[in-house]
Queue: 3 jobs
Job 1
Amino acid sequence: MSSQVFSLADTRETLQKLQDAVTTLGRYWLLAALSAPAYDQKLAAAEAASRLIDRALELQQFAWRQYHMTRRRVSWSAPDRPDTHGILVDGEIQRPVLVNEIRSLAAAIAAHCRNSVAGWTAVPALSPACRAILDTQRLIEELHSDLGGAGHELPPVRHGGRRPEAHRALAGPIRTPIDPAFDRQYSSLRHRAPSYSDDLRDALPYYWTLSTREAMASDSCALSAIEYDGLPLEFYRDMAKQCWDEARHAVLFKAFCREAAPLLLAELPVDDPLARILEVFLASGGGLPIPAEGNFYEVMWRADLVERLILMQIETETPAVRTLAQRARGALCARLPSFKSLVEIDRNDEISHARIGHNWFRYLVPAEADRRDRRELTALLRGVLFASVLARSEGVEVSDIIATFATEAGSAMMPTGSDGIFVA
Amino acid sequence: MSTLSRSISDKQTMLFDKDTRTLYVIDGSTLYKSAAEVEPLVASGAAMKFNKTQLRSLQDAFSAIVLLGASPT
């Protein structure tokens, strides 16, 4: 009967260690998504992050139901913080260090799972815990192919202390890479980025520009999930899910441009500057012009969490749901069924992103009057955040940009069309 | 705290007074906590001050620049 002797406290400790480590590994993968040099790599990293944090949440819910464990808020532990661990140095992610840390932590989690299960398989009373651990081990091994040896011991569970409130625990990378398909060519102060129409000539430049913006949306979610501590695990689950969705959009929109470029080329005069751009893209995979400021990721980097939710999920993605429904009924979707599918899945995802934004905005700012105030403040600060990016790109002070455009004539000084982006 | 204070570039910081909706853009990397601290810097030319109307104009001007698929305004 000795196999029936076990410690429930040890079981809880084992499950908590595992949940904490899987969450940390998920956040490391979000750092990998942020620093990925190409969008297909961003997508793979975001998928890993999302699946890991989903798994951490499943573990948490299981441990709460089965063993009455507290659902703790998420925070970096001192040994794992990327900014004290050589992963995040002077605002830049050190990818080789990050890759090593991911491999090392994944190996440690896999070893922790193996050791726990080895001790518990003969204890029928712990079969639910064994099942949860085996499911986790399988995911870790699927996502990390070369785990090697035993790995280090997982850090001990932290007990006691105050329940942390949501706060920015660290500053993420100030810049993220743009996919090599894109070329920063024109200033947003002199040329307006392409707008959508059902004419492929407009739609294609719009969708390649949108691809980089989707990557920025992915980055913004990853950034919030790695910077902010003190939120429930569901927040990190939602940010990782959206990070994955947006990275997928970035890849799919770029792929759509490649697929539709020959159709547009067949319609354009040979000497059309856009034709030359498409030929270069089809031949080399690069050269698609985007704003010199990139995708304005730095706007989000300088915004706080509430401002990010307002700027992206609430003010931009919520209205996009209706716009995309109209687009799905348009002529280009009728002409290209694969494009219609893309628009429909985009709209499907935007609905969930709007819900995510509103849910966490209400969580962070519970009073309706305060939410109204935050939206008004964020609207006023939006221009300032954009000015900070434009100033760096233009090589001037932020105050110069604000002083120039914060006038009645400011709007009239902005470009009204994208003419001139496509130069021979 | 009725102010927001943060870095907006390598060379400048901002202080936003939420009560008066006034923005101060300040040379240097020091983060200030109150408008009273910054007003003397405006007088000396080391900071610039923008009121709500100016910020609305800036917001309108940059509404042409979109973050994702569409402009919020």
Note: The longest helix of chain B spans residues 35-44.
Job 2
Amino acid sequence: MSPSPAVPTILSVHRAALFVFCLVGCQGQTAYQPNEVEMLLAELTPAESAEVRNAIDWLFGGPDAPRVPEALPVDAALVNRAAGRAATQQVGHNEGLFRQHCVRCHGVTGDGRGPAAFYQNPYPRDFRRGTFKWKRTYRGQPPTREDLHAVLKRGVPGSAMPSFALLQKEERDALVEYVRFLSMRGQTESALIRIAVELEGEDSKESMLDPENSPAHSRLCEDLVERVAERWRDANLDVLTPTEVPSPSPESVRRGGELFVSRRAGCAACHNGPPPNGAFENDYDDWNKQVFLLSERTARLRRQGPRAELLEAHVRALTNNLPPRPAVPRSLPGSDLRFAADRVDLFRSISQGIAGTTMPAVGPPSPSDQLGPPAQGALTPQQVWDLVDYLLADRSQQITETLRSL
Amino acid sequence: MIATLPRTETPPAPAPPPAQSRWPHRWAGLLCVATFPLVFVGGLVTSTEAGMAVPDWPNTYGYNLLLYPWRTWLFGPWDLFIEHGHRLLATGVGLLAIGAMASSLWGGAPRAVRRLAALALGLVVFQGVLGGLRVVLVARELAMVHGCVGPLFFGVTAALWARSAPWWDRSVSASPLQKPAFGGSLLSALAPLTFAQIVLGAWIRHAPADPSPRLFATVVLAHVALATTLLLLISVALWATYSKSRPWEPAPLWVVRGIAAVATAQFCLGLGSWLVRYALPGWAQSVMGTLSTGATVQAAQAGGFLQSTVLSGHVAGGALLFALSLVGGMLVGRQRGSRDSATEYQVS
């Protein structure tokens, strides 16, 4: 049976389209990018970097076909729904959700280096550290699923992070699960980088990190994953729930105003200090700090001669794309509060600090993290509530109280 | 014989054109009017990330496009409603393009009109295939090309509408001896520049995950710089229409004013697009921080009414600006041609 005359036409149209496709140039990223900053900070050789990359790919697969290690407390079906290219196989069941909604800012790897990141302030979140600002858990702990869900649903006011309230709940669930997956993957990668440094001094055969062919290394990698996963299990996450929520009063606002400018709380030093809003030179949040440290180290190496050329080129590419920005605390009182939906949210942010930033905790750590007798925070819960009341008070009242306390 | 004519004598009026059917112009108008909402809905497809809501093409979930159950379409998921609606609208526009082609062939339209109608038909077919391949090949990059060809097609339909208009031939002899117009040169340059701006905008909207943040930022800067340049050019062209020696007569005047109005709205929509998509840039936040009232500005809603409308409005506004610029450029070209032939006649 000879092909119908329409077939060559369709084929040539396809060819023409493929030509246009190639002309446009980009097939879309189909590989997770290595954590170059940490690799450079750890001074890994190119061969060691390749080993780490192979090991992490062996453990977690690629963005089109992620592999979920058994130890990971994530739903593999949801991860698979969020990964890969955007597609729909049945009405209303969208797949490839991460690439559809998140990749433009957060990047395929979740490293916060998506194409649209440059002009955003703050930069999009780098999930690989597993550090999230807006959560209800105690300091040092990862967020719960509900915390990530709340950020997706509400967005982050004052930043480019929009609300995804219009997505179906199952779609948000899939995105939450994928973000957790990327975080655990990133933390495992960091651990592997440290392992690669440790293996450096051993004999030549054992110094090669090769989980695919070495049972010992495969066990080592799985142990690492298990250790990372342990921190993310629901049972190990403690949500800070205030025992009582006192009502605001003029008196609590007054006390909060006094505390705000006092040396004890030290809030005004950053939030209402000398311009710009008390920002300190070279004071970076955790995400920017690494790039800053790397560029500092490169600057020192540059002075030592040409041996730093390769490193310099790498670092230049990294810093040119997203130059490290010093932390600029919000100007308080008066500025928008990014993610304080209610008084309890603000209480948590003050009590436990904001993870990854220079905002410290003033409340006690999680009871499960304390080995000895119950620890006290720098401020009592009542004092934290006073600060909350002061920050949420009517602005004219805030100004009056600030002037009075000064 | 001609050389003996006095130099001041006006050239003889051209012979009245043979009576033409008005149907090609009517079809072209209908096609142009129907294409504008198609461009807007195309923008909605991208703004609401609905491009892959239907997995197959030219069918919709295995159904013939026109036989897809209307209840599922109207009451199903929003992205399906947008994507399938875009396909249905595009089918309607394709049929109108066939109608425009047929009427220009059988209505005795001039050759230029027939060529434009053929170009429009070719483009709409190409555009449909591009859209289909974008789905079948799951290629966001083809969506980028699709986003550029859409406004181009709309521009061609506008050109077809203008070229087939009865006033096109009537007004050509209205003022053939006017001075060369500086503003006219600017107007001729607008269409290619606007299209370049559309290409940059399409790249920004459909950027794949590969490009570095710096490259993306550079393209955004180029888009802003070109927008500013266009606004300046349009301001000068507008000023020229109000100068004493008006270089154009009535048709281009409304074109230039229309371009100025659309460009202004488009600039505002462009700023709005950035705001609803990426919020205030860092430098603007520090300025706004000093003006803050303390009220928390809620985060934009991804795919929400405001975001989708502003983004799609910006896409449609770009297409409208391109179409008006194209028509304006054609009118300038027509007057120049007419002036040149008149001058040639005088000299001879």
Note: Chain A has 16 helices and two strands.
Job 3
Amino acid sequence: MPRRRRSALLLVAALLLAACSPGSDPTASADGTLVIAVDAEPSNLNPIFGDVYGTIYGDHWPMFSSLLDHGPDLEPVPDLAVEVPALSDDGTSVTVTVRDDARWHDGEPVTAGDVAFTYRSILDPSVATSLRGLLFDSLESVEAVDDHRVRFDLNRPDPAFLDKLTIGIVPAHLLEGTDLNTAAFNRNPIGSGPFVFEEFRPGERIVMTANPDHHDGAPGLDRIVVRFIADDAARIAELESGGVDVDAAGLSSRAAERFRDRDGFDVVSIPGDLLTLTLPVTNPLFEEARVRQAIGLAIDRQKLVDGLAAGSGRIVDGPFFPDHWAAPDEPSSAFDPDTARAELQDAGWELDGDHLVRDGQRFRFDLVYGHGNVTDTAALAIRDMLADVGIEVRPETLEHGPMVERVHAGAASLQSLGNAYDPALDVFEMYHSSLADDPDGNVARIEDEAIDAAIERGRTALDRDDRIEAYHELQRLLTEQGSWQYLLQADAHYVIGADVEGISPQPREGHNHGFSRGLLWNLASWRIAPPDPA
Amino acid sequence: MLRGLARITLRRLLALPLVVIAVAAMTFLLVALSPFDLGHAYTQGGRGLSGAEADEIARVWNLDGPVHEQFLHWLGNLVRGDLGNSRLLGGQPVLEQIGARLAPSAILVGTALAITVIGGLGAGVAAALFRGRTVDRLVRTASHLSTAAPSFWIGLLLLWFFSLRLGWLPPGGASDLRAEDVPTVAPRHLILPAVTLAATQFGWFAMFVRSRLLEVLRSDHVLFAESLGHGRFRIVARHALPDALLPFLTLVGTHLAELIGGTILVESVFAWPGLGRLTVDAARATDLPLLVGVTLAGSVLIVFGNLLADLSYRIVDPRLREASP
């Protein structure tokens, strides 16, 4: 019996020892393969259907190339275009010259006809793409002038139009005459980008290999495997065990922190989405501007930022990314709970114990938001801060669909703004009165002529200074209006678990995913570092 | 005897379409009653339906007709194998895509079922034979844990221990996705998800076998066998177990549905490329054609599973062979 007990003890000790040893070390792959994890599985790889993640800024996969790309500082740089073109003097037309040495992965040359076909498809009402209504409202027609020149005609001056020439170009010779909505191409594409599509295994991975004949030269990586792993914990586990080299979906600051000082890992942080509290004017509680402003004054933005890991977020005062050319320098938000209480009292809300009451009704509202690391903490903090002035907030997480419905019905919400590019790409959609009934656009239901005028000027003025003035005016008006309380900008944190050279992220990135922006914008220049001789 | 079995199999197979139609009707009804707006479902936000989208919706759902006509129209498409096209799957036909995701789920459920049945049987027998002893206490504790703990929790725990702490098993996916050629399912990748899925049902089986066996061991014919001086092992193997096995098979049939339902959580935890995760994706994206498709596929799997359980029941117990189904 004693012997048996001793062997049992040994077994337990062995198990404990094994439990204490770390998992296998991440192995940068020797064969030039890089495994990148994203959180959402793409539905449609065809770039004319827009960004698979539901944003409209025209992201595309690296098997495609586009006329222009967003460069290192987010200004347009040429890809298939010979140079960055100039808008005509009246801002309503632009002609782009397509380089003559680009080829599709099947060997056919890329022509102006392909470009015209791509943009014409987006304008075709029978094609189910969300790009048409929002991104290309200004595009009237597109025409191949000859084999290498494409002319775009606009229905209004559109200074942001060059930002819209980043859509991936699709091959007319393979798609002309097919039903684009159901084309097999959508999941098995042929492009002209630095990587060639190899395989799409649903639920598992997309594989791409280097295109040695790319018009900018062969990329540095031989092979890319993209995996779809929605769960943060699962992506962390894969990073730890070497199943994933790059987490391009982004982790919370706390989760990324554990990788920051470890050998074999790098953490890249990029300023990301703006978080806002949105108070729709259609909700009787938020009818009055002074009440909306009082709610804004009662929120301690610095405290919200401090709730994130040190240095991984900052206060924002308006609808633009900090350090964007459209953003004013001076702060327009403040934390002043005393003024907030006074304003609420002026509006007829009296404190009864800890609660504000008017006409026998408590000041109480639901705050709906999509689950996320930043939103979860922010919602609870806002609940506590508003409780201090007597307002009862009931936070509630919802999926996208039900959240849209609740917001449409007047619920307060936390929204993420993700436009790191030209403001004209989304301010119209967000604040213009013509979209006050739209289920997704203008969720605060703002109808304000001065705001409309500033938006219009910002998206049609051709002079950059005029536009800056218009957007400063817009920020001032939105601050006064008070339905949008801009709170903070949180950084997106990406963990790199392989020795990769050439990573040089763009200075800001809304909605932390995409292959032609943010972390991965220059994926074609990445290469796996040769093993250390030592 | 085999003729009787064949006849029953044939009869059940002939009834299968009716069962599927009933399931389809229920699914359709659920969609009709659901708060999903079809327009929203097709455009992910419902920003102005394009002509093509409106046509596709009208084609699949026959929206202009009354509900019963809508159902017949939809059923007609279903019979032709046309479940519509899925926005979430890049406009590809739903049926084709479901086919691609069926195999990983079937392998996962099959393995989990085998673990549950064999493990449950073994543990139950051991617990019954060593009633009140350590083995029995261990089995009972494990069983209570298994029925009480949620599968995603067990899954995360196993994942943390075996794949993060020990580094023995991969944390997710059905095979090594870095490799050039990947099999549908690699055995190393199957272990954790299959054990997790099995753990959700293991307790029921073990406890069932245990209590059933204890009951049978007290029955007259076992006492009779004992009085004849047969050994305990022989009594259990020859007399008690076959008796206990019969209702055990019913348990397999009823718990198969639980296992298939369980894939939704387990596949999400282990990034398994099967139908369970596709269901979650379809629901999150409110992709109705796909959601209806996976619901139907899951139901058909359950119907087939029950058929198999029913048939094996009849093979084990000859008395039931000639009885009407």
Note: Chain A touches chain B through 59 residues (CB under 8 Å).
